[in-house]
Design brief:
The protein is an alpha+beta fold. The chain has two domains: 117 residues, Aminotransferase class 4, branched-chain amino acid transferase, N-terminal domain (D-amino Acid Aminotransferase, Chain A, domain 1); 151 residues, Alpha-Beta Barrel (D-amino Acid Aminotransferase, Chain A, domain 2), CATH 3.20.10. It is 26% helix and 26% strand. Helix 5 packs across helix 7.
């Protein structure tokens, strides 16, 4: 989706004009992909804009930086406050938020130790990542020819800019083949995740999602979905899935900050019942939860004002 400019972007402690938020062409991360980022959403609620699980997202950003041996110059609390400043300055009732920490201009070469760490936070309006009908009609999936990173090659537990070359290759391959999204397998052949979403598939009435060991990112939306599912009385667990499990599953959905909860109607042209009853229930509850309409989950919202 094209980006719609907003008024301000937070960069290294200051709100700057959108068009002034620029970096040098020799910025280190542009050349070597060593940066970490997050995807976060703010939603319109009865009490004004609220960011969903903001502090936890910023903690994960810090965790990603730690895995990459990147010294973050701002605390989690400082980044939380900066995010609220950006959303407030935008005047938007709801928006997508992108924090990124990257190695800046001034040093070149593979050694990151002398490099400065710069941080920016932007927000803009962004609709449903996999389409407005992704919940009701589902999306078509393809098993990618591209393998998900091994833990000792590129750490998939870190939300790292360079890792997403892997995802981009898989995404474009799927789109050019006429599908909506790609599913990536681990080097051992187990289902890992999509290019930007965690996977849930139902077998024998149990919702199964791949573990971190299979190369899946530890998703905050994934965690939210599991809590909602348990409160509905649905059995959920982390376990390994094969591609054949997906072909014969009773229902399937994917989830992530951008995609929210999106049903899957087929994998490799094998139709899947869509939307399944658990999928429909969880998607509806998630949509209410992020908008502050479910009392038991209100602690997940951090209000801008």
């Amino acid at each position: 989706m094209p980006i719609t400019p907003t008024d301000k972007i937070w960069m290294n402690g200051e709100l700057v004009d959108w068009d002034a938020a620029q970096i040098h062409v020799l910025t280190h991360t542009l050349h070597y992909g060593m940066g970490v980022f997050e995807g976060i959403r703010a939603y319109e609620t009865a009490d004004g804009p609220a960011v969903f699980r903001l502090t936890e997202h910023m903690q994960r950003l810090h965790n990603s930086a730690r895995i990459m041996m990147m010294d973050m110059p701002y605390t989690v609390d400082e980044l939380v406050a900066a995010t609220k400043d950006v959303v407030r300055a935008s005047g938007l009732p709801s928006c997508y938020i992108r924090p990124i920490a990257y190695y800046g201009y001034g040093e070149m070469g593979l050694n990151t130790l002398p490099c400065s760490v710069d941080v920016a936070i932007a927000c803009w309006p962004w609709g449903a990542y996999l389409g407005e009908e992704a919940v009701s009609k589902g999306v078509r999936m393809k098993i990618s020819s591209w393998t998900r990173h091994d833990h000792n090659t590129m750490p998939p537990a870190a939300k790292t800019t360079g890792n997403y070359v892997n995802s981009s290759l898989a995404k474009v391959e799927a789109l050019k083949a006429g599908y909506d999204e790609a599913i990536m397998l681990s080097p051992q052949g187990f289902v890992s995740e999509c290019t930007g979403e965690n996977i849930f598939a139902a077998r024998d009435g149990v919702l199964i999602t791949p573990p971190i060991a299979a190369g899946a990112l530890e998703g905050l939306t994934q965690d939210t979905v599991m809590a909602i599912a348990r409160d509905f009385g649905f059995e959920t667990k982390f376990d390994y899935l094969t591609r054949s499990d997906l072909y014969v599953c009773e229902e399937m959905f994917v989830c992530g900050t951008a995609a929210e909860v999106s049903a899957v109607n087929s994998v490799d042209d094998r139709p899947i019942p869509c939307p399944g009853p658990m999928t429909a229930a969880i998607a509806a509850e998630y949509a209410k939860t992020v908008r502050g309409e479910v009392d038991r989950y209100k602690d997940w919202l951090e209000y801008v004002d």
